[in-house]
């Protein structure tokens, strides 16, 4: 198992390197001069060239890439052309906002989604199964921006329960943070909840019909132990995969949700940076998202062995 983890870590480094190389190449292939776009067409060519030299954009592409990677190891992500600030400062400001909304959304989706999936599988064909299936289907097919707009119209404008938009850090005013975070968190969680509930139901239905489940019941083991110690443990393997895939959504932020609720997070900054050809912001944001995603996939691979001894023995 240790050898497997070491190999996965090495592969993760290779993946992150390829992602950094890919996003660097794509940004420089796109047409448009980022310095000219940021300074405007009224700026003189001398001023534009001076900024290019300050940002090392006048150097060959290979040298630019080496300088950027070297800066990352020193904690220097570059300077934003559009914001005129260091990218590290922008990430320090915006990343916590996205995480403070994405993590609660993911926790809510995991608890409710897995719980509803278990209930739906145990009472298959009953009215509660049909209700949960309907909710899951609607959650998977409803656009997040439409759900956010409807939520603002009903709960912010109509009932005046929550603020319409904005963000407050939990360490500044926790009560206000909760009020502003309820609707964005729900909109971000609904898609994750739908996929987790459907996958849990499908996995549980497959597992509870296995011979070892019937054998456990025949030995007189309590139904609680049969479901949660035997059936659920094996049914969680594909569910863990779905959870790992959702990490990129949590860290990247839901762009539509951030736009609807006017939350200045990673998603809105990344979109603005792509439009403005803000090389260092785009490269750094994509690299951060890839790091979290690769780390989540590594954790998922380890959890496979925790929940399924057969996988652990095979890797050992």
SSE layout:
Layout: H1 2-29, H2 34-39, H3 45-54, H4 61-73, H5 87-122, H6 127-141, H7 144-158, H8 174-207, H9 211-218, H10 223-245, H11 247-252, H12 255-260, H13 266-275, H14 279-307, H15 309-315
Helix pairs in contact: 1-14, 5-6, 5-8, 6-8, 7-8, 8-10, 10-14, 13-14, 14-15
Describe the fold and architecture:
This protein is mostly helical. It contains 15 helices and no strands. Helix 5 packs antiparallel against helix 6, helix 7 packs across helix 8 and helix 8 packs across helix 10. The longest helix has 36 residues, at 87-122. The radius of gyration is 24 Å and the shape is globular. The mean pLDDT is 81.
Name given to the CATH architecture of the domain at 96-263 = Orthogonal Bundle
The share of residues in extended strands comes to under 5%
Q: How many strands, which pairing sense, and closed or not: the largest β-sheet? A: none
Model regions low in confidence, pLDDT < 50 over at least 5 residues: none
The end-to-end span amounts to 5 Å
> What is the H/E string?
HHHHHHHHHHHHHHH
The level 1 CATH classification of the domain at 96-263 is Mainly Alpha
* Overall pLDDT level: 81
**What is the fold named in CATH at topology level of the domain at 96-263?**
MetI-like fold
> What is the overall number of helices?
15
- Specify Rg, calculated over alpha carbons: 24 Å
Structural class computed from helices and strand pairing: mainly alpha
- The CATH superfamily of the domain at 96-263 is MetI-like
Put the structure in a nutshell.
This protein is mostly helical.
């Amino acid at each position: 198992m240790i050898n497997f983890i070491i190999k996965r870590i090495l592969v993760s480094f290779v993946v992150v390197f390829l992602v950094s190389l890919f996003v660097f190449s794509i940004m420089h292939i796109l047409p448009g001069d980022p310095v000219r776009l940021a300074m405007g067409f009224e700026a003189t060519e001398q001023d534009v060239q001076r900024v290019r030299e300050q940002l090392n954009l006048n150097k060959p592409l290979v040298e630019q890439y080496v300088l950027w990677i070297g800066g990352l190891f020193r904690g220097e992500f570059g300077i934003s052309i559009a914001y005129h600030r260091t990218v590290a400062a922008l990430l320090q400001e915006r990343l916590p906002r996205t995480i403070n909304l994405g993590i609660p959304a993911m926790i809510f989706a995991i608890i409710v989604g897995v719980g509803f999936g278990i209930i739906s599988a145990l009472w298959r064909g009953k009215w509660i199964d049909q209700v949960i299936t309907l909710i899951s289907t609607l959650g998977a097919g409803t656009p997040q921006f439409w759900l956010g707009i409807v939520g603002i119209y009903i709960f912010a404008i109509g009932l005046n329960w929550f603020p319409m938009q904005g963000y407050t850090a939990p360490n500044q005013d926790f009560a206000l943070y909760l009020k502003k975070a309820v609707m964005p968190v729900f909109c971000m969680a609904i898609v994750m909840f739908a996929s987790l509930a459907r996958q849990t139901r499908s996995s549980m239905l497959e597992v509870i019909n296995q011979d070892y489940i019937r054998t456990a019941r025949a030995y007189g083991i309590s139904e609680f132990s049969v479901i949660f110690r035997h059936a659920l443990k094996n049914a969680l393997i594909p569910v863990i995969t779905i959870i790992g895939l959702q990490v990129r959504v949590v860290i990247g932020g839901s762009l539509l949700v951030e736009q609807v609720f006017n939350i200045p997070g990673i998603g809105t900054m990344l979109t603005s940076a792509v439009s403005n050809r803000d090389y260092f912001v785009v490269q750094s944001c994509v690299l951060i998202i890839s790091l979290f995603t690769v780390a989540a996939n590594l954790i998922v691979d380890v959890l496979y062995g925790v929940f399924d001894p057969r996988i652990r023995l095979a890797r050992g």
